[in-house]
Amino acid sequence: MSTQSASVAVIHPYVECHPDVQGGRPIIKNSRFPVSSIVQNYRRGLSIEEILHEFPQLNPAEAYDALSYYYDHRAEIDQEIAELTDLNKIMQQYPPTLCPPDRGSD
User: Fold this and answer.
1) Is 10 in a helix, a strand, or coil?
2) pLDDT digits over 48-79, tens only?
3) Which of 6, 41, 59, 75 counts the most CB atoms within 10 A of its CB?
4) Nearest to 37 by CA among 69, 66, 74
5) Cα(31)–Cα(27) distance, rounded to whole angstroms?
């Protein structure tokens, strides 16, 4: 008998990806709510109950499945969060548009 374990794909019933929604990032099914948002709040120390209080449109199964998805796709979600929180990259993509008032013309 072989002692090798077969790799089994885990199905996440509350998570989906669509190329035209949130840039193809994993989201809660039938919403635009990114899995990475749940992960970031959980990392900040919020419990699932607190996350659900902050985002009442979610239900417990969706929030727990998002965390489960994260643990199955950790490198992908960690990369997404790193890109979303890279302030230098964001400032290059979206430079400030407000200019200080010209005070030298008085």
Assistant:
1) coil
2) 999 999 999 999 999 999 999 999 999 999 99
3) 41
4) 66
5) 7
Q: Which of 61, 43, 41 is nearest to 51 (CA)?
A: 41
Q: What is the total residue count of the chain?
A: 106
Of 91, 61, 70, 86, the residue nearest 25 (C-alpha): 70
In the beta sheet, which residues pair with residue 16? 27
Is the CB of residue 26 less than 8 Å from the CB of residue 69?
yes
Rg (CA), the chain: 19
Domains of the chain, first to last: 15-85 (1.10.10.10)
Interatomic CA distance for residues 37 and 94, integer angstroms: 21
Q: What is the pTM of this model?
A: 0.76
68 burial level (CB within 10 Å; 0-12, 13-18, 19+): middle
DSSP state, residue 56: T
Main-chain dihedrals φ then ψ at residue 30, nearest 5 degrees: 60, 30
